[in-house]
Amino acid sequence: MKSLILLTALFITSLTANAQQEIEYPIITKEQNLNWLKAFINSDLETEINLIHDRIISDTSTIEISTHKRKGDKIISHCKPFYFVTFEDNEPLNLSINLTSDFVLDFIDLLTIENVNHIKVLNNDYTKVRMNAFYGSRGDCGVIHIDASNRKFYEYVNDLRAR
């Protein structure tokens, strides 16, 4: 029985690790973003935090790309999720407004299992009308809601945003 439980745990861990390894950065298209969101949704909290670390670094270091072709009017642009942090009844903190490299480095150092209760991803494909009502076009590539486990983390993130 113990070996069956261990085998099951190892299998789930390998699936989670494989999901994270299959992600190719930078994520530019909506299709790549959807694949990232799917990997994110099927992960445990530690893997979710690692995926956010990698994604925020990638999004910060990638130049926004826009191309316009005359025939077909196809526009390709960088698809970034909208991130926000909450703590109890405090105002949600929008993290997408100040993704400078200094902010990102400080934020990912703080984004640990000890500072996060849970992370919820809201994907535009599943709740399009609701997403657009709350987040507008900012939520087109998904919304990442990070629920802080302590006031100190929440306040530090708020101070980082003010810099």
State the gist of this model:
It comes from Marivirga salinarum. Keywords: Signal. This protein is α+β, with helices and mostly antiparallel strands and 163 residues long.
The global form is globular
Beta strands, count = 6
Biggest pleated-sheet summary = 4 strands, mixed
Total domain units: 1
Please count the helical segments: 6
Separation, N- and C-terminal Cα atoms: 54 Å
Roughly what percent helix?
40-55%
Structural class category: alpha+beta
The helix/strand series, from N terminus to C terminus, equals HHHEEEEHEHEH
Adjacency order of strands in the biggest sheet:
4-3-6-5
Strand content: 5-15%
User: How confident is the prediction overall: mean pLDDT?
Assistant: 74
Taking Cα atoms only, what radius of gyration do you get, to the nearest Å? Answer: 17 Å
Low-confidence stretches: 1-21, 64-76
Organism: Marivirga salinarum
Keywords: Signal
Protein name: DUF4468 domain-containing protein
Task: Describe this structure as you would to a colleague.
The strands form two sheets. The protein has a four-stranded mixed sheet with strand order 4-3-6-5, with helices on one face. Strands 1-2 form a two-stranded antiparallel ribbon. It has 163 residues and is an alpha+beta fold. Residues 1-21 and 64-76 have low confidence and may be disordered. It contains six helices and six strands, in the order H-H-H-E-E-E-E-H-E-H-E-H. The chain has one domain (2-66, 74-162). The termini are far apart. The longest helix has 20 residues, at 2-21. The protein has helices at residues 2-21, 30-41, 45-61, 101-110, 128-135, 151-162, and strands at 67-68, 75-76, 82-86, 93-94, 116-122, 143-148.
